[in-house]
């Protein structure tokens, strides 16, 4: 069963989290495939898989992804990207991706993926973007027919360890406003700073194309600085390790005082969104310095300090999750109520790469949905 098909209620019963209107900012296309789709597309190209039935394959992905290492976590994508090398494969995956988001109550989603990883069977970069857009459009129509209203946009990612940043930025520019809403860099973070792609970010700035940058997941504060000042990032992909710049000191048994370093203060003051992904952050070891349970995640600390926190899935297949499940886990762990969950969704709406008027309309839909819950 897809995680998106499961219904999550507020802890202790009550409102359906699944039915609430939600915004997804950090969700990878190649990390959200249905296991059965992998099996069927794999058969078409003769791909050998570690399991040949959907539940077992889903279990394999979850197990392999729970390694405590981003590098090891990323190896599972060798299988998903292998079945996404044709127009048919890309369009099908994108279509089902939107269907699953809509079934989980998402009303707006930005879907990130790296076209350069999908040209092994002869597609051009532009053809991959067009194939994904075709699937996304079909998924939106399917959702409408099923009684859901959803809007989506592509975030075109460049792989930070490759030397194609400017080429991918130019690709994003060619499709900007025709499905593409922004740019991202992804892949192994440590050792590959945003500054290596400075020419791409210069190009994007000159063409008024917004960027989010993976930073503060597998590397620390220097990576976040690079994302902000070399990448001109308007959002931080994960950004969880910004908490390294939050300093606490206990004065006595009752009082703990918190001070922010200059980087954390900058991010807070400018309301730069943190695309936090709780389950994924546990799997990749991004929060290992604070602990290995969800209660150790600095999400609540950052929220209580007034940072613009958002909740995301990162990779629904690898984490066996959905946006509703992530919200449920946070509510269960930190005692959040519907008011808190509404804040997370309004934060996300305000941080989308949509025009201002569209962001305001999205916020109105979220507020109405939560008021009626």
From TrEMBL:
<dbReference type="InterPro" id="IPR032466">
    <property type="entry name" value="Metal_Hydrolase"/>
</dbReference>
<keyword id="KW-0378">Hydrolase</keyword>
<dbReference type="GO" id="GO:0016787">
    <property type="term" value="F:hydrolase activity"/>
</dbReference>
<keyword id="KW-0479">Metal-binding</keyword>
<feature type="domain" description="Adenosine deaminase">
    <location>
        <begin position="21"/>
        <end position="367"/>
    </location>
</feature>
<keyword id="KW-0862">Zinc</keyword>
<dbReference type="InterPro" id="IPR006330">
    <property type="entry name" value="Ado/ade_deaminase"/>
</dbReference>
<dbReference type="InterPro" id="IPR001365">
    <property type="entry name" value="A_deaminase_dom"/>
</dbReference>
<comment type="similarity">
    <text>Belongs to the metallo-dependent hydrolases superfamily. Adenosine and AMP deaminases family.</text>
</comment>
<dbReference type="Pfam" id="PF00962">
    <property type="entry name" value="A_deaminase"/>
</dbReference>
<protein>
    <recommendedName>
        <fullName>adenosine deaminase</fullName>
        <ecNumber>3.5.4.4</ecNumber>
    </recommendedName>
</protein>
């Amino acid at each position: 069963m897809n995680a998106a098909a499961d219904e999550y209620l507020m802890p202790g019963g009550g409102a359906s989290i699944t039915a609430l209107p939600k915004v997804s900012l950090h969700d990878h296309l190649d990390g959200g495939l249905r296991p059965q789709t992998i099996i069927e597309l794999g058969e078409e190209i003769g791909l050998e898989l570690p399991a040949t039935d959907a539940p077992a394959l889903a279990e394999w992905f979850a197990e392999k992804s729970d390694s405590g290492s981003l590098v090891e976590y990323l190896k599972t994508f060798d299988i998903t990207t292998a079945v996404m090398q044709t127009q048919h494969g890309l369009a099908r995956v994108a279509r089902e991706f939107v269907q699953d988001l809509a079934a989980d109550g998402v009303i707006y989603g930005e879907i990130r993926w790296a076209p350069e990883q999908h040209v092994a069977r002869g597609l051009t970069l532009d053809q991959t973007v067009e194939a994904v857009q075709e699937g996304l459009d079909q998924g939106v129509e399917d959702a409408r027919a099923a009684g859901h209203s959803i809007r989506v946009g592509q975030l075109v990612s460049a792989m930070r360890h490759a030397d194609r940043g400017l080429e991918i930025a130019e690709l994003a520019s060619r499709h900007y406003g025709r499905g593409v809403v922004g740019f991202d860099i992804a892949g192994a973070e440590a050792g590959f700073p945003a500054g290596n792609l400075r020419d791409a970010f210069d190009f994007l700035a000159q063409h008024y194309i917004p960027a989010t940058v993976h930073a503060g997941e597998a590397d620390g504060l220097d990576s976040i600085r690079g994302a902000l000042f070399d990448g001109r990032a308007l959002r931080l992909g994960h950004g969880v390790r910004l908490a390294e710049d939050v300093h606490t000191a206990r004065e006595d048994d009752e009082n703990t005082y918190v001070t922010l370093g200059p980087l954390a203060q900058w991010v807070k003051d400018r309301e730069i969104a943190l695309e936090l992904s709780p389950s994924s952050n546990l799997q990749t070891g991004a929060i290992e310095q604070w602990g290995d349970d969800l209660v150790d995640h600095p999400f609540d600390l950052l929220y209580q300090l007034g940072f613009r926190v958002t909740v995301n899935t990162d990779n629904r297949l690898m984490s066996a999750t959905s946006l509703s499940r992530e919200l449920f886990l946070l509510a269960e762990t930190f005692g959040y109520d519907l008011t808190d969950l509404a804040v997370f969704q309004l934060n996300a709406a305000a941080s989308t790469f949509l025009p201002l008027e569209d962001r305001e309309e999205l916020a109105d839909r979220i507020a109405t949905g939560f008021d009626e819950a």
